[in-house]
Amino acid sequence: MAKKIKQKRKIVKKNKVSKIKKEPTVKQQKPQKVIININKLLSLEEAVKYVVDLSGEKGLEVFKYLIAHGPMEENTLARKLKFEKANAIRKFLYKLYNKNLVSYTKKKKGAKAWYTYYWKASPERLVFLIKKEYEDEIKQAKKSIDLNKANDFYICETCNRQYELKQALENDFRCANCNGVLMHMETSQIVGEKENRISFLNDKIRKLSEIIKIK
Ligand SMILES: [Zn+2]
How far is the CA of 169 from the centre of ligand 1 (A)? Predict the structure, then answer.
């Protein structure tokens, strides 16, 4: 009996192995192709601003150069952009790398012990990041609309601070910061402004989506 069971197990094992071996050839998926309109992207004010805020004007220059010229070895990139040393350009590359706007691969040159870094830009990532910012703002605006519809708000017109009815009552309708008299806020106006902002952002998201195509 024991022998038979052992044999069965062996057969099962063999089958498993052959299955695993076959799988990759059966399941070959085509890699997704991302097509991106670089000129359109780099002409967007918010795209340029995002990169400059992240890595400065110099970082933008590095990013644009990598997009235009493709993956490049670090020292070559530093030389082309007239950086004194590769170390000096690394600061900007790392800032871009923090948001995955660039990535690197390292290779050993010959038998020597040090690595050479090749950097590559990922402009499609920039589209994703800006889109994410807009989507987050839309979420916030929607929350604010719900809040404004449900509550009464008061505002200090000097410091622009907003108070809920309960707080305003507790403070005797005075601002906790400057003691100014609080005014009742027209929530319909706030809601209207937020709704306008949401449709403005949705329009921006639509334009961003036109820049990037996944085939
Ligand atoms: Zn005030």
Answer: 15
